[in-house]
Amino acid sequence: MVEPGAAAAWRNAAAEVAATSDENALELVELFFFAYRDFVGDADRLLGNYGFGRAHHRVLHFVNRRPGLTIAALLDILRITKQSLNRVLKQLLEAGFVEARAGVVDRRQRLLFPTPLGGTLARDLAALQSARFLKVMEELPPAARGAASEFLFAMIDSDERERVRAHLACAKAAGDAP
Amino acid sequence: MVEPGAAAAWRNAAAEVAATSDENALELVELFFFAYRDFVGDADRLLGNYGFGRAHHRVLHFVNRRPGLTIAALLDILRITKQSLNRVLKQLLEAGFVEARAGVVDRRQRLLFPTPLGGTLARDLAALQSARFLKVMEELPPAARGAASEFLFAMIDSDERERVRAHLACAKAAGDAP
DNA sequence: AGATTTATGTCAATATAGTTGACGTAAATA
DNA sequence: TATTTACGTCAACTATATTGACATAAATCT
Q1: Where along chain A do its domains lie?
Q2: pLDDT tens figures, B88-101
Q3: In whole angstroms, what is the distance from residue B49 CA to residue A6 CA?
Q4: Minimum-distance residue to C21 (CA–C1')
């Protein structure tokens, strides 16, 4: 039980709360809060340089990850109203970080693409957040690494998982080509 | 590779993104976003019944988990300004969900406690969010359960982990007594 | 061809949650 | 006594979201 070193110490603390009791579930609730709090903080400084906020970040991120995304698909991902999306999207379009082209099969749709400028910012932001995950994966014992992503996937509403999985597959395919 | 069943399918998908490459870190970023999006959604309906929002939830949660919390400690946890805290805290005080007592050792401090009413709501809200974790833990292979909390802990800023660990220990102690 | 639905844009009002800045007060401390 | 600390408060502002109503062009149905 008494291992030396801070890393071992917090690992003990973490393992201690892993059991499936109510009390320990509560501790996971708090860990999730703190983890997300720090996670989203990473990108904020960089965004401030461009006069953008987190809402712009989310839009830019998903447009960059899934070029050709429609408005409807983006609304579905973000779970906000079109009026709310429109404000930040308009700013991203006007500032030249995102561009919209009429859909080829359905010309009512506006397909969203990152501009080179937008792609660069999206990658810079993504690098910040990826860095946290890469560091975490290094810190974690190899056996726990797959578990982390299984855990996150299981945290998603069960009726949403298929959609998320499709999104990830689509983003991966988009990332392979260019 | 070809296992039957949806559970096996998404487990494969999750395991696939677990490697420590940049591309896969990006997928973890998105999984984290989706997981948190669904996680915070759970409590919103219940909060609406009381005319409260997420800000109230966070305050009530931490006051309930750590009775006798000072304003300064709460500000440190939430990372917001005192003006922003004051608005929601005042509402919780006036509505009788939280009460403040002058500190005994330092009478400038206001120690925050949940009222019976506040404690009940806090537990109802916590039950909703705990339920998600308990369900996830059931879905996950036992070996992955400890890994989930290790992962969340590792996602916290390293210079914040000691504080969070102290907070968890304190909350646990507070939860044991009553 | 005409009617309807769909995808999207937009105007307006409002709510919630946060910010910065300035100032006040009571209690602890040097 | 002077200063610092813990907290409260007024004001103006920003960011992000909401609901509701209405507009338009393109696709689709009958």
Answers
A1: 22-140
A2: 999 999 999 999 99
A3: 44
A4: B83
